[in-house]
Amino acid sequence: MTNNAIESTNAKFWSARHDCWRPDVRDVEKISFGLPAKKKCTGSRGVPHRLNEDERRSFDQARRKGFLEVQGSAWRSQRRDAPLMNTYRSLSDARGRPVIVLHKLDPNANGGVAEDMLVVDLSPLRLPEEFYAVSQKMKDMLIKEFGVEGQLDSEEPQANTTDDDEDEEEAVLDMNTDSSWESRPIYQLPPYSISWRVSRQQGKEMGKVLANLFETVDANFAATKKPKGVMPGKGRRSGGYGIG
Questions:
Q1: Terminus-to-terminus CA distance in the chain, angstroms?
Q2: Kind and range of the H or E element at 58?
Q3: Where is the stretch described as Disordered (predicted)?
Q4: What pLDDT score does 49 carry?
Q5: Is residue 244 part of a domain?
Q6: Which end of the chain is more exposed for a tag (fewer CB within 10 A), N or C?
């Protein structure tokens, strides 16, 4: 099966929910600079979204290519989280597209094994009853083309909740309920991730195929520019976490 043959099969094997809460793309861009969003719940104090310069370059590049490339987990120690991953997932949710990420792993930290990990998170589609079927179709297509077996990493994990966010409920949510996927922001919903162990080149080739399958390339994107008046800061008042 050729890449063109794979791409031609994307007509009806996946879909995204429309009757649900989603952030606006412009609001996602704003909170990535630490500015407040117009739409409530776009950001959260406990889920950092503000990007530094290196992260913004990767974010902008991902919008052009249709998939994100990060070093390791993209964890930033200053934030004790991964703002780049959070922001790209929010952008994917705004566009109703899966999250496609190539994690570039350090062989020295990976038992000497020179391989990366390609991950697709279907949660931004917000149709949990279809996740399994979509993942199986995607895995079947990629194993035929690349000979790499995908693995389901997460099916029913807990939502991402924090103790210091007054706006988030303390109760553990049943993430299988339709209402959760209809009304909650993506950072309160669990990922549904499929991963592949790949070489660097193979990961990039598969990323391109997946970007075409799921139409994740932002064809009209121009590089995000820093708004006037945005100053660096860590706290809520300076927009350090991108409050919605």
A1: 45
A2: helix 53-65
A3: 149-168, 225-244
A4: 92
A5: no
A6: N
